[in-house]
Amino acid sequence: VREFVMLMCVACKAGKAQAAWRQKRAAEADRKGLEDLNDIRASMARVNIIRLALAFMVSMRLHTRIAYSGFIHGTISGLQKRMIDWDRLRIRGLVSRQEFEDLNDLVPILHESHVSRGAGFLTTDMLDEILAAPMDEDWEVDRTPDMRAPLAVLVKLRLEIMRHMNEPWGFKERFSKDFLVNFNEAGLLYEHITVLISTPIPFPYVHLCKVLLLCFILSTPLTMQGEGGFFDGVMLPTFVALSL
Q1: Which of 41, 100, 134, 200 would staple 169 via disulfide (CB 3.0–4.6 Å)?
Q2: Contacts of residue 107, Cβ cutoff 8 Å, sequence gap at least 6
Q3: 171-175-178 Cα angle (round to 5)
Q4: On the CB side of 52, how many CA atoms lie within 13 Å of its CA?
Q5: 3-class SS at 140?
Q6: Residue 40 exposed, middle or buried by CB count within 10 Å (0-12, 13-18, 19+)
């Protein structure tokens, strides 16, 4: 994520003010007098990339909270619901209202009220009210396969990159492959995390570990030497058994 944020900040051509900084290291006061529409558009492009990159990281955190209990078992606890609400409010502070509605629809918690109450902007009183909800209730989650929030944010990032390609304030087409490679790596990271969370430990492996522990416990007394002392003869094998 840091890599494509830095690449976007460096690759955008911008306008006259940015050119003055690159060529002459012009002072800030001089650059303000040279600033044109292309500089403003490049600044907005950088802001959009940074806020969507942060939204992707928060959505990954949200996904890890709901993936196991919610998408596998179908329910989440009240504490998990509060942490998920907090992550959604963080995303709301990074995206527009319409973008948030698109992402919030991909968090399939059933029979809940809208997390932001449909407000156009968030206030401290509203945040306190939302996060003060009771945590003694379990929430049902829809387990129907669907696109998840991190992938939706990556789609928005790809669209944002394409919007500035070959534009006067943007970057050349040859730089776009570097962005797309980073997005693909982020998508693979999401897939790997999902597999780790959703794949249960194989039951034969659990039995194998228990058999190994039993064999170790039975064979340890046969290899102990009395001159090793209490620590070497008792404590160390106990710690090894606990580690298994």
Answers
A1: 41
A2: 62, 66, 84, 88, 149
A3: 140
A4: 24
A5: strand
A6: middle
The pLDDT score that the predictor gives to residue 8 is 83
d(CA 85, CA 58): 12
For 110, the token pair is: 């059933």
Q: Phi/psi class of residue 15: alpha, beta or left (left: φ > 0; alpha: ψ in -120 to 50)?
A: beta
Q: Which amino acid is at 61?
A: R
**What are the helix (H) ranges across the chain?**
2-11, 16-24, 28-34, 37-67, 78-92, 97-104, 124-131, 149-163, 176-198, 203-223, 229-230, 236-243
Collect all residues with Cβ–Cβ distance below 8 Å to 62 and sequence separation of at least 6: 84, 87, 88, 91, 107, 149
Cα–Cα–Cα angle for 156, 189, 57, rounded to 5 degrees:
50
Tens digits of residue pLDDT in 126-146: 888 877 878 888 899 988 888
- Cα-atom radius of gyration of the chain, to the nearest Å? 26
Q: pTM of whole model > 0.85? A: no
